[in-house]
Input
Amino acid sequence: MFKRIFPTAIAISAGLFVLLGALLPVPPLTGIRTLFIDWAVMVGAFAFILAYLQLLRVHLTRLKRGSKSKLPSLLIVLAALGSFALVFWQGPVSPATQALLRGLLAPGQSALFALTAITLLLSGMRLLKVRRSVGSVLFLAVVLIVLLGSIPVALAPYQGVMGTLVGVADWLQRVPALAGMRGLALGVALGILLTGLRVLFGTTRPHSDD
Amino acid sequence: MDANTMVLIAGVVVTLAIFSYLLGDNVLYRWALALLVGSTVGYALAIVVRDVLLTRLSGEARGFYIAPLILGGLLLLKGFPRFAAVGNISMGFIMGVGAGVAISGAVLGTLIPQTQATGMGVTLQAGWASFLNGVLILVGTVLALLAFSPRVRATRAKDLGGELELSRRGQLGAWVQQLGRVFITVALAVAFGGALTSALTIFVGRWWAVVGVILDAVSRVTGAN
Output
């Protein structure tokens, strides 16, 4: 009962109220929709707590077992507990929290994102080696045109060949890329619609450990 | 040394530790990553507890939040294998609300506006060039959408499996797929170019920060401005 019937009944009823509140925006339905979404945000916060505790449990178990990756696990546990205590007691705008943000989180995350530049460059260069096809050539040609077309005007004045390249890059982004992206977005939306309807009809039950 | 300088130096140390991955997977990179993962999770949880839970539970309307509080408590039981099934009730609530929001978002936020925008682009009001671009966007959108259509793929696969030559329907399906893929390839290439540009910009920015701190340290030591 707890495994299937209750969760599915709750999922269907909550989902229908939320959907009706969006499609028929009349007083009781919109109020229920807002309330349910607010509640879901709060339950989501508990899901975050659960994930946090699970992370701590996994790494504390590793520490207990004395596995190879002991120090990274210790660092994760200490950093997770320390940063939680600091931000929780001091608040997000305190000097200590700002120091954590500017000294660790912001540089660390931007450095990680910067590393993807190298990964992307290498994968782009390896593409022709791994898969030689018209699609690969087209992909790399468009990437090259877009990159050349985004060179700042101060470095290369938009005249002659450079002007044509910038025009082509602009057209590629405005017309065929927009069409492709729109097709993908519509496909994703149709997929979401279908999956959502399956949850509301109870044919898919991601919540019941099936 | 003031606090600001220490923060800048810490940022440079973290940046260099992460960039050390360029020389290969190493201990320094793994330590920096562990520190970053732990701090990010702790920071995010503190913000969630303060801004989502405490704000709601300390407000005047806290009586409204008894139900989600119970659902949240049940969800925490998922951490104990013996009582994990009870947490499915809370998961059901989250999934149901999520499905309702996703369906309404997909229909009202993507399907209707994107279809409208595609149709409205086909107009002669802004001249022939704009009209042709609009037609190309319309055709490209439909072809890109059909490139993933299981029916088009099934027709093609059936014809490929059954006979050496494709039937007319199979040929049409193959053409639709090929043309749709061209539009998708261009879209992904433009996205790749954009991601590469922004990643490279941040890469250069991080190196500038490192160089800035080193130059600052050198100028302090030598006493030069």
